[in-house]
TrEMBL record, chain A:
Record keywords: ATP-binding, Cell inner membrane, Cell membrane, Membrane, Nucleotide-binding, Translocase, Transport
Entries under SUPFAM superfamilies matching the protein: P-loop containing nucleoside triphosphate hydrolases
GO cellular component terms, semicolon-separated: plasma membrane
Family matches, as CDD domains: ABC_NikE_OppD_transporters (cd03257)
Protein name: ABC transporter ATP-binding protein
Main subcellular location of this protein, as a coarse class: membrane
ABC transporter domain mapped to chain residues: 4-251
Source taxon at top rank: Bacteria
Organism: Paragemmobacter straminiformis
From TrEMBL, chain B:
Pfam families: ABC_tran
MF terms (GO), sorted A to Z: ATP binding; ATP hydrolysis activity
Coiled-coil annotated spans: none
Gene Ontology biological process: transmembrane transport
Name of the protein this chain belongs to: ABC transporter ATP-binding protein
Database matches in CDD domains: ABC_NikE_OppD_transporters (cd03257)
Domain ABC transporter per the UniProt entry, residue ranges: 12-253
Keyword Transport included in the entry's annotation: yes
Keyword hit for Transport: yes
Domain of life of the native organism: Bacteria
Taxonomic lineage from the root: Bacteria, Pseudomonadati, Pseudomonadota, Alphaproteobacteria, Rhodobacterales
Organism: Paragemmobacter straminiformis
């Protein structure tokens, strides 16, 4: 059974255009699903909706988000927050802005455990040390006393990964966690996330614009265009033969150094027009 | 082919302000540690490296936004290593730069037409309006875009404006510093195709800085790999990819996630 099940989720800018158009997707326990699309396609918006952190300027206009069988959108806000806090976590994109620059690392990991989950401080601190060791940070004791600026981008991202896994969530939303990193550091971080995810059996919703990354860490993916899922596939099937013309074009635009002439092809205008027409038809047919 | 740039033992160090004592000078941090290479006229050279490898510093030294602390940079026969600003100014038209983040390198209060026109006015061009129109044409933007503000454009369109501004001055050399890293794959492909076309049509010499070897593979005939401020490999791109010599180049190549689930990515 899927641990996260989104059905016909629609979100729009308040009094404005739709941002998500009847999005449906499932993530099984322990599965990694990639959310792929160009900027503005709504991939991060899905992650935010799941975590209940949609900006105030947008509103949910329909659909369900079932987390472990319970529809989050049907719960009163306090209950929803408690449930999300206890079962889900986020690995954010930019490790520098996600950490408070004026506080030591240790407190930033333990806060959530102490304040939200009600752990004893000693237990939370022991857990923080254990996690830093698990994300392969040398000298965890020292790093817990460091400030964010004293650490490299890769180290900061490791800390945010440790922090996301701290309370043993059943679901993690990773929002472009390696976009700001070098390829060599990106590889280490992706391997780390994949390893942690497998060890802890965590379901992962992995937001990225990079199909190369998807092929390395995900088992399934949803391709988005203008807030609409145009393709939902298993990773192996997708890379063997994408079904939708837009996703095929996106794959052809992805750089591939082993085949330079067949990669980096812009998405053809005809494909964009066709997928736009599809979006417009869906808007007319449904409730937007 | 004649060389446009001749770089000899290029060194650049900056004051390390994080380790500056209360009194006295800050220790120097060596960023470029003696680089030697040439850029022939008409070449498209890729400069690749991880963060902190010195690739952007090298780029900025080439267009003399930074002054080297040792060695020399010769541009088309002129030693520009320590040339004072007044003497650099007439030369500046000839080496232009396109920046990584078009949002922060385009004045948000100016319309696109003015953004492209301003450097031409500074360099005393005549017929500026016609040149703006031609530059827009070259980068595939409709003429109406001259009246728009940067925030009204998409990322790819903004980057085209940055390119238009650079080529409007009819430079000999363009330095492109990570100009596609913030773009979606499709816009990335469009901007790269455009650049390829412009280099051929206008006879430009291009240095393309990137952390992404896949992009360099497509665009550049030659690639310089930087690691911690030194050149570890400088070869024809095809050879570099088929048979990387330096351990760091291999590491960079192997780290690239290809869109292929069967790639061995150990």
């Amino acid at each position: 059974m899927s641990f996260l099940s989104i059905r016909e989720l629609s979100v729009r800018l308040k009094g404005g255009p739709p941002l998500l158009r009847r999005v449906s997707l499932d993530v099984a326990a322990g599965e990694v699903r990639g959310l792929v699309g160009e900027s503005g396609a709504g991939k991060s918006m899905i992650g935010k909706a799941v975590l209940g952190i949609l900006p105030g300027s947008v509103e949910v206009t329909g659909g369900e988000i079932r987390l472990d069988g319970v529809d989050l959108l049907a719960l009163p806000p306090a209950e929803r927050r408690r449930r999300i806090g206890a079962t889900a976590a986020l690995i954010p994109q930019d490790p520098l802005t996600a950490l408070n620059p004026s506080r030591r690392i240790g407190g930033q990991i333990t806060d959530r455990l102490v304040d939200i989950l009600g752990w004893e401080r000693g237990r939370a601190e022991a857990r923080a040390r254990e996690l830093l060791a698990e994300v392969q940070i040398p000298e965890p004791e020292r790093v817990l006393r460091n400030y964010p600026h004293e650490l490299s981008g890769g180290m900061r991202q490791r800390i945010l990964i440790a922090s996301a896994f701290a309370a043993e969530p059943k679901l993690i939303v990773a929002d472009e966690p390696t976009t700001a990193l070098d390829v060599t550091v990106q590889k280490q971080i992706l391997k780390l996330i994949a390893g942690m995810q497998a060890r802890h059996g965590t379901a992962l919703l992995f937001v990225t614009h990079d199909l190369g990354v998807v092929s390395k860490v995900c088992q399934s993916l949803s391709v988005l265009y203008a807030g609409m899922v145009v393709e939902d596939a298993r990773v192996r099937d997708f890379f063997a033969a994408p079904k939708h013309a837009y996703s095929a074009a996106l794959l052809a635009a992805t750089p591939k150094y082993t085949d330079p002439m067949a990669s980096l092809t812009p998405v053809p205008d005809a494909v964009i027009e066709a997928v736009r027409a599809e979006v417009a038809a869906a808007d007319r047919g449904g409730h937007g | 082919m004649a060389d446009l740039y001749t770089i000899t033992d290029l060194r650049l160090s900056l004051a390390d302000m994080t380790r500056k004592p209360l009194l006295g000078a800050a220790p120097r941090l060596e960023i470029l540690k003696g680089l030697d290479f040439t850029i022939p006229k008409g070449a498209v050279v890729g400069i690749v490296g991880g963060s902190g490898s010195g690739k952007s510093t090298l780029g900025r030294a080439l267009v003399r936004l930074l002054e080297p602390s040792g060695g020399s940079i010769r541009f088309d026969g002129t030693d520009i290593t320590h040339l004072p600003e007044a003497e650099l100014r007439p030369l500046r038209r000839r080496f232009q730069m396109i920046f990584q983040d078009p949002m922060s390198s385009l004045n948000p209060r100016h319309r696109v037409g003015r953004i492209i026109a301003e450097p031409m006015r500074l360099h005393g061009f005549d017929g500026v309006d016609a040149r703006v129109a031609r530059a827009l044409d070259h980068v595939g933007l409709p003429q109406g875009f001259a009246g728009r503000y940067p925030h009204e454009l998409s990322g790819g369109q903004r980057q085209r404006v940055g390119i238009a501004r650079a080529i409007a001055l009819a430079p000999d050399f363009i330095l492109a510093d990570e100009i596609v890293s913030g773009l979606d794959v499709s816009s990335q492909a469009q901007v790269l195709n455009l650049l390829e076309q412009l280099v051929a049509d206008l006879g430009l010499t291009l240095a393309f800085i990137s952390h992404d070897l896949s992009v360099i593979r497509r665009l550049c005939q030659r690639t310089i790999v930087l690691y911690q401020g030194a050149i570890v490999e400088d070869r024809a791109t095809a050879d570099l990819f088929s048979d990387p010599k330096a351990a760091y180049t291999r590491e960079l190549l192997e780290a690239i996630p290809l869109p292929d689930p069967d790639q061995v990515w150990a």
